[in-house]
Amino acid sequence: NNRGILHPRSPKPDGYPICLNCNIELAWKVCKQCEFSYCFHCFRMSHNFIGADKHTWTIQEPHMCGLCKKNVAGKRAKGKEFCHSCFARLEKSGVFRGKAVGKIEDI
């Protein structure tokens, strides 16, 4: 089963974080106690000892656009997440010009 494993030439799908442990695979599980997002393998390996084996988890949902609320986010700017179409519309309007914008990143 290759679910969650990125092929070396496959782009990361928008909105899904990378595992905070290995920084390679897609994160599919969020540990409620650790507050970390893990791929299946890293979750299993980091939670196989007494205490952590009782941690509970949820499925990692993709980050959604903070503006339209219906599309998966692909960009983060000004501490908010946007889908590509909302980001393009805001960028065209000039919202992201100037030093106050900070870092614009893909997510």
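the 2nd protein, sequnce then structure:
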Amino acid sequence: APLEPPPTDPLWQFVFAPGLVEFITYGGKPLLSDDRAPGDFGFDPLAFSASEEKLKLYQMKELKHCRLAMIAIAGMYAQSVETGAGVFGAGTA
């Protein structure tokens, strides 16, 4: 029997995989417990959070970049809906 093609909507992987990593890392603790912040996995080999000022600066930079990325994804989605050609097939004819 031939193999079935992969699913065409892998969005669940982008939701499930990070949640699974966080669940395993923290042993099922609630996301906003008192002893940790969201996204704090305790991995900082380059000491970005060496000082409180530096930590606040990088947190703000991350927020700004994430917001820009969300706007970009929304634009890609809108282009896909408008042209009907998909995100990567829009420029090809």
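Residues 3 and 57 are 50 Å apart (CA to CA). Helices lie at 11-25, 52-83.
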